[in-house]
Amino acid sequence: MGQNQLSNSQLYIGIDGGGSKCRATIYTQDHKQIGTGVSGRANPLHGLEQTFQSITESTQLALADAGLPAEACNQLVAGLGLAGVNVGHFYDQISNWQHPFKSMYLTTDLHTACIGAHNGADGAVIITGTGSCGYAHVGHQSISLGGHGFALGDKGSGAWLGLKAAEHVLLTLDGFACETALTDKLLAYFEVNDAIGIVENLAGKSSSVYAKLARIVLATAHEGDKVAIAIVEEGAAYISELARRLFTINPSRFSMIGGLAEPLLTWLDEDVASKVSPSLSPPEFGACLFAQQQYAAESVA
To answer: Ranges for the ATPase BadF/BadG/BcrA/BcrD type domain (predicted)?
Structure first.
């Protein structure tokens, strides 16, 4: 059946690459999903070679899932929504990649997430996963906020929550900050018994390592720990204000996506939480729609 798919109509692959993982999904011309694959992170801030490897691996896994041969990659029209390509030189480097696809169209993961969340219609989206950022598109207007990367930005994200928890715990262990239940939880998580043990596990590590601590912070906040509550409230206040900035161009829909979208919802200000609508489709479908639109425009030209 896979070979018939190749001969019948153009196939598209939508790729969503972020700080923790890269997901690739193959779609038919009429948007039927036929295969998907997931590999490692694909944010060029963490290295171009890693990004290219993750894109290639997730593509090959998606082809295998679709029952297509590996060499069918060169017949796919690819849409790539990647974190980090809002930085100009990364966009240029990836655009100049000798990619394995028939055609490749690149944009930010924010853009494709917004396209997918609203099935191609106008709207706004906030990503709260390993990182955090916001995007809104209405008519000819667009706003893109955040997405500056860990640890310069990404406030309210999983990585930020983990970093703030680790910072406070280290201060507590050195006698400079108030006691918190996070201390015992982080020591147990890393299976260490002192500050040096925590440092050895976190120093120089990527955002995805810090983001794994976010669930501990949220759970501890729900248990009533004042330090954890303060960290989560600060992050949620930023996300709420980020949403309000996006609302200034009056998007008709607003969605939140990413691993922390649901856990953070209860911490957001009510005026923002009440406007959240479910995401209609995943970011990789948004990348597929983006690729279809760009490919069609080039074909006409």
So the answer is: 13-291
**β-bridge mates for residue 39, sequence order:** 22
Q: What is the pLDDT of residue 230?
A: 98
pLDDT of residue 8: 60
> Alpha carbon of 271 to those of 72, 199, 221, 249: distances in Å?
48, 39, 22, 16
Nearest to 265 by CA among 251, 254, 276: 276
**What is the per-residue DSSP string for the chain?**
-HHHHHHHS-EEEEEEE-SS-EEEEEE-TT--EEEEEEES---GGG-HHHHHHHHHHHHHHHHHHTT--GGGGGGEEEEEEETTTTSHHHHHHHHTS--SSSEEEEEEHHHHHHHHHTTTSSEEEEEESSSEEEEEEETTEEEEEE---TTTS-TTSHHHHHHHHHHHHHHHHTTSS---THHHHHHHHHT-SSHHHHHHHHTT--HHHHHTTHHHHHHHHHTT-HHHHHHHHHHHHHHHHHHHHHGGG--S-EEEESTTHHHHHTTS-HHHHTT----SS-HHHHHHHHHHHHHHHHHH-
Cβ neighbours of residue 222 closer than 8 Å, sequence gap 6 or more: none
What confidence score (pLDDT) does residue 1 get? 43
DSSP string for residues in 98-133 = --SSSEEEEEEHHHHHHHHHTTTSSEEEEEESSSEE
Distance (Å, whole) CA 247 – CA 232: 23
What pLDDT, on the 0 to 100 scale, is given for residue 5? 52
Q: How many whole angstroms separate alpha carbon 235 and alpha carbon 180?
A: 18
Residue 141 CB: number of other CB atoms within 10 A? 12
Contact 159, 210 (CB under 8 A): yes
* Cα 109 from Cα 72, distance rounded (Å): 25
> Are 116 and 51 in contact, with CB atoms under 8 Å apart?
no
